[in-house]
């Protein structure tokens, strides 16, 4: 009881913003696989205060929620400690907001919070949006000045590190800056996309590529965010890679890497890494059916990348893919080994690797045969053109 009382007293000494930041940080560490003694009790107390529904996902408080609104469609839950091109971790918003309020623009932040509170109480949403937009512009200008030199940028990174140990938080600040600079360009691009894309076929690839070309011309630095919005509409995330493979001269990895949208391969690998983290959490919590579905998606993504990009094993993409699949295999092996050899495990089923079945292998041969015919036809047309 004494320890509980001391813990409660310590938590109450922190500001509400600090307690919210602490909750996000503890959840981030847990998702990263770091066990913190007593963390569960602290998280339960803090969730009871900040999340009335007991949610484990961070949600910004009112003033910061209005400020971060332009990022909403790009946020991902969880705490991936790897690069997530075009996306921002929701868990980093709380420490970033605390850094803005305490270090970057403390006086303006206090004025903003008060102004937002007054207008929310007056039920004036248009004025709320106007105040948020004005403060966003101020933050952009200060960030541009702060990040103008390597020395000041490093000082900003050090300050932010006082609020979170996340390795990606500073990168998320840079992403936030790029998104805010775009203004309403990203929302307008998003509105033009199909509501749902069950299959990214050739006609849709052509249509979306035209939209991306126009966006890229006006906002080249923000292209990954536009691609992330496309990925949100896909039923199957790996299909994003078709934006690069369809534009390539051939399926060779070098040709795919030379296309304007080659970065989608990195984005697909980022999502594969997200699934690895989700698989680890599912296995830790004995959610085997969720793990099974994740593993099936993982195997499908691996297969799709290898089929659609020739020689991927010998390039940077292939190295990362193999590292991810080795880490995933270790998770599966550890789970399956908990059971006797004579007891089958659902994660060890070959059915999860549909491409390893006879039908899958025939489909693979059909793909390769079609590619050979297309490559031969292209070479013949090139030869005819030279004669």
Summary, kept brief:
By secondary structure, this protein is mainly alpha-helical.
Question: What can you tell me about this protein's structure?
Answer:
The protein has 387 residues and is mainly α. The chain has three domains: 54-182, no CATH class; 187-348; 357-387. The chain contains 18 helices and two strands. Strands 1-2 form a two-stranded parallel sheet.
Characteristics:
387 residues, mainly alpha, 3 domains, two-stranded parallel sheet, 18 helices
Counting helices, strands and paired strands, the structural category is mainly alpha
Calculate the terminal CA-CA distance, rounded to whole Å: 90 Å
| Regions with little confidence, pLDDT below 50 for 5+ residues | none
What percentage of the residues does DSSP assign to strands (E)?
under 5%
Number of helices: 18
Compressed to H and E, one letter per element, the order equals HHHHEEHHHHHHHHHHHHHH
Total discrete domains:
3
Provide the fold topology.
Blueprint: H1 2-13, H2 16-31, H3 39-50, H4 62-67, E1 75-76, E2 88-89, H5 93-104, H6 106-121, H7 125-146, H8 150-160, H9 169-182, H10 185-191, H11 202-218, H12 223-233, H13 242-245, H14 253-257, H15 263-284, H16 288-308, H17 316-336, H18 358-386
Parallel strand pairs: 1-2
Helix pairs in contact: 2-3, 5-6, 6-7, 11-12, 15-16, 15-17
